């Protein structure tokens, strides 16, 4: 996504300065198709504000751990035996005297099901099978006073090689 400044510069150059698409692309260093795409947006709005933290749900918050527990149990159950959002709402209403709406429960269940699944890749390495090597240039300040050939306080550059060996404890 291009920045708001580029969007604004494209619109100003096109509408106010009456420049061509090619010229705008050349001046701003972007492709002509990108210029066309920016201009094609009827109301080229800057990105909308997004909440960093979700708003509090006073009715739903007390039962969220319960819903998540049911959904995590459903992950191991066969498809036909899993809870639907409606069934979750009915259980909450009947067993826990839930006063919220079915719609909010449905929205929350959908949100939970859309969350990306956690992926785990087991890494098992034999000793010496896997290593990571990094090169780095460092500055060294000579502080040696006893040796005559090295001037104290002189800085010099050196290349350092760092090697990390990966060994797993899995048999």
Layout of SSEs?
Elements (H helix, E strand, L loop, with lengths): L3 H13 L4 H8 L3 H9 L23 H11 L10 H12 L5 H13 L15 E12 L13 E12 L5
Antiparallel strand pairs: 1-2
Shape: flat
Major sheet characteristics: 2 strands, antiparallel
Tally of discrete structural domains: 3
Topology pattern, helix = H, strand = E: HHHHHHEE
Question: What's the mean pLDDT score?
Answer: 84
**Sheet/helix structural class:** alpha+beta
End-to-end distance, in Å?
Answer: 47 Å
Can you describe this structure?
The protein has 171 residues and is an alpha+beta fold. It folds into 3 domains: 4-40; 61-114; 130-166, no CATH class. The protein is built from 6 helices and 2 strands; from the N terminus they run ααααααββ. A two-stranded antiparallel sheet has the order 1-2. The longest helix has 13 residues, at 4-16. The radius of gyration is 31 Å and the shape is flat. The model has no long low-confidence stretch (mean pLDDT 84).
Give the key terms.
single chain, 171 residues, alpha+beta, 3 domains, two-stranded antiparallel ribbon, 6 helices, 2 strands, 39% helix, 14% strand, flat
Compact overview of the structure:
This protein is α+β, with helices and mostly antiparallel strands and 171 residues long.
